Amino acid sequence: MICLACGTMPERLTEMLMDTWTPLIILWITVLPSIYMAPMNQSQVLPSGSSMELNGLSEEQRVLNRSKRGWVWNQMFVLEEFSGPEPILVGRLHTDLDPGSSKIKYILSGDGAGTIFVINDKTGDIHAMKRLDREEKAEYTLTAQAVDRDTNKPLEPPSEFIIKVQDINDNAPEFVDGPYHATVPEMSVVGTFVTKVTATDADDPVYGNSAKLVYSILEGQPYFSIEPHTAIIKTALPNMDREAKEEYFVVIQAKDMGGHMGGLSGTTTVTITLTDVNDNPPKFAQSLYHFSVMEDVALGEPVGRVKANDLDIGENAKSSYDIIEGDGMDIFEITSDSQSQDGIIRVRKPLDFETKKSYTLKVEAANIYIDPRFISGGPFKDTATVKIVVEDADEPPVFSSPTYLLEVHENAAINSVIGQVTAHDPDVSSSPIRFSIDRHTDLERQFNINAEDGKITLATPLDRETNMWHNITIIATETRNHSQVSRVPVAIKVLDVNDNAPEFASEHEAFLCENGKPGQIIQIVSAVDKDDPKNGHFFLYSLLPEMVNNPNFTIKKNEDNTLSILAKHSGFSRQKQEVYLLPIIISDSGNPPMSSTSTLTIRVCGCSSDGVVQSCNVEAYVLPIGLSMGALIAILACIILLLVIVVLFVTLRRHKNEPLIIKDDEDVRENIIRYDDEGGGEEDTEAFDIATLQNPDGINGFLPLLR
């Protein structure tokens, strides 16, 4: 066991050392300034009788150390940033096993051993070879051991100890988060919190005052103050006005060593901006505004703009405008422009120069958001007078009604008067008016209008069933100024007259079961009429006079204006008569009444026992008993399929027996005839048959197969 550094130890440890013969390595510390030594724990001291001693101290000093205070036995100290021409002696190891014959070899291992810390293996001196920085590494853990120089065998177990780097004030405070930006409302009271800054110091906060910081303001007084220890910045002056000065530049200093002389310092800047509060009312740029407007201006069009300025910004500068007095409160309105904060005066109702030529309004601008803290400084509103002059304009004609509704019967005579429109010139000059029809709205030219008095007449016949409504546009034009034109819509409703006969709603075909019963309803039919009587349709049904005593069928009128067809007897047979035709007369209730004759076709069918129609053809009687129509169709389809298969088979056999290639001995193209004579014209054609060349197969008496 190795004990390092000087000091006293507890009595228990002394007894242990006295009872054992384990060699001790005694740490000899070179006499260094007292700053190398640090107070230790009272429980870790060397025994009074120990052979470990403090090299360079007198006996009186050792006794004094034993009786008053102890020193940590397993750590050494070295001052950071200490440099000199020679390596620094940190401490010395020594064991009483060493007789001075250099048989002992000291070995050092651990953090920085061999690089930062080097031990003399003969004397046990430990030196620091480099400048040390506590902020980079505060302590080093090393292990010391004594071995035999010849055999390298350990003479005792290794002992661990610590070398601590003692701090010096070599780091200035730093504001890591700077520069700072902060805001505080204008008009704040003294002591209002603004922000807090923080500086850090890399020196040891435990040892000395190297990291004890004190804050102060270098620039920014007398507007702001800072608490020295908490670094909280507060307002120092009351009622700072943003409109006078909005931004302040404050320089903060942090100094270590408790702010004493010789301490290091660092600075940062804080940009403090005063935020706006609503402490200013709106104010009109002028007390009286003059505007003019033409009487024919469109509704909603702006007449003019007024402006109330506010020294505040943002929401605090927003104002609402209202008309609070005047003879045009119902004629004009004022709204706020969200972008420019102007008050826009608009026309709310039509203007008429001939009726009123000028208006006087009193408008008010008031802040939308009011801060209750400054309500005593109000009122936060202002008023101004607005005079509006209406200017005369050449106005277009004005119709007596914005729209017209006319009615005419569909049988009205040509050139008959349907109705009349009227218009006048509202100007003082009162120009005569001429009327016309916009033919884009009357493409078929069914109507005409008198250009002088505006009477509308019928030009072509009307048919309500074709077109019930006609919408035309009448144009009124000033004769003195053709550019002044007005238009009015005219809706013409065509009234109904009874000019259409009723008829069946659809083509009906009734089915009568052979096994039907007398009085059974065969069919229910309905009728329609293109006319539209005021009291609705009411139809009368009857048979032709010669069919009144029809032996087979009769009719019955239903309450819902429909007609039921009934069978008079049973025993109908398709073999006797397959189809019956029943003419029916349909009459309406108009004046005069209109009627038409429609024929109902009744077909006799075979039905099931529950009355479901199965077949209506006479040929059904020739079907074999027990076979349905579906079964017969299936049988017929099978027969047709078999016939198709047989035909295909015969065709394929025939194609297989025919030769596909012409035999070589029959190829007449090899029979070449050579002539040495001169051509004789048509006589040469007698030497061979030209048809043979064109159709060599013809020689054998058959024609080639066309493919």
TrEMBL record:
It is found in: Cell membrane. InterPro entries: Cadherin (IPR039808), Cadherin-like_dom (IPR002126), Cadherin-like_sf (IPR015919), Cadherin_CS (IPR020894). The chain crosses the membrane at residues 21-38, 621-650. One of its GO terms (cellular component) is catenin complex. It is a single-pass type I membrane protein. Residues 95-175, 176-284, 285-399, 400-504, 504-626 form the Cadherin domain. Gene3D superfamilies: Cadherins. The keyword tRNA-binding does not apply. Keywords: Calcium, Cell adhesion, Cell membrane, Cleavage on pair of basic residues, Glycoprotein, Membrane, Metal-binding, Repeat, Signal, Transmembrane, Transmembrane helix. Pfam families: Cadherin. GO terms for biological process: adherens junction organization; calcium-dependent cell-cell adhesion via plasma membrane cell adhesion molecules; cell migration; cell morphogenesis; cell-cell adhesion mediated by cadherin; cell-cell junction assembly; homophilic cell adhesion via plasma membrane adhesion molecules. CDD domains: Cadherin_repeat. It comes from the Eukaryota. One of its GO terms (molecular function) is cadherin binding. SMART domains: CA. This is Cadherin-8 isoform X3. It comes from Alligator sinensis (Chinese alligator). The gene is CDH8.
